[in-house]
Amino acid sequence: MSKRRNNTFGHQLTKNKRRKTTKKEVRNWLDLPTDVMLLIFMKLGPVEIILNAQYVCSLWRKLAKEPHLFHAIIVPHHQHHFHCCNEATGLRKFDMFFEEAIVRSCGQLVKLSFENFLTQELLLQVVSKPNSLKSLRIGMEVGYSLNGFFEIIKRLPLLEELDVGNGFYTCHQFEVISFFCPKLKHLRVEYYCGSPYEPRDYDEHAFAIAKNMPHLHSLHLIRSAMTNKGLQAIQEGFPKLKYLDLRICFKLTLDGDVFKKRVCRYRHIRLSNEQTRRWSSTAKSSLVINCCRCAS
Fold first, then answer.
1. Which of 26, 55, 119, 153 has the highest CB neighbour count under 10 A?
2. Where is this region: Disordered (predicted)?
């Protein structure tokens, strides 16, 4: 009986020690150094900072106004904060967030990436002032006109990376991009299923890109129906191209030595017939080939 009591007493002591240890390990986040808090805020991103973190305390609200936290504004497709039951409410909430994020960036915005919600008017507000934008990603659900796109591109002389996915393109559009964005190094163009083009149009687009953007380092043509003629134009037109992404390009003939000869010059070429989502960074069944394998 005494042994059982001793065991029970010892067990209780152990539990009390654990509780004390647990209490000691609880950290007061308000005591963290400012530089550490800023790193945490950078991990959170602008959306979480403006809609949540800044309301914790006055110190966090002050930190939430640091301009370098808003160098990159990225809103993925699945961002739940703006998917409200009432669509109008969600859009108003997004507009308020976006305008506040732009103000806090203090003209130091470098990257914009949106799958939806963003409008042509909001984009024009950003680029109408002197800006440092180097990377722009516009998702398929972002609505804008061709003329609106031209007005936006004309105001981005420092742009190095462009990702567009509205599915409507013209050869003239690629000429305009090249003329007004001389520093462009990375281009991603995505067509959608049922794009209203004649088969030859896809090759014409490849010709226009190859002719006007020979300085590209990476090119993504997703879901293009170009043929090997378009691929040949790309091969001949890009001396600096290192990465070529041709996923879901069904019209290409990928067999034989001719194809190997055309693609072995690239450091990476990506091929897949798997349907991809723009908000997914990698297709599960995509095939990435490096130049060593092509040459072997």
1. 153
2. 1-22
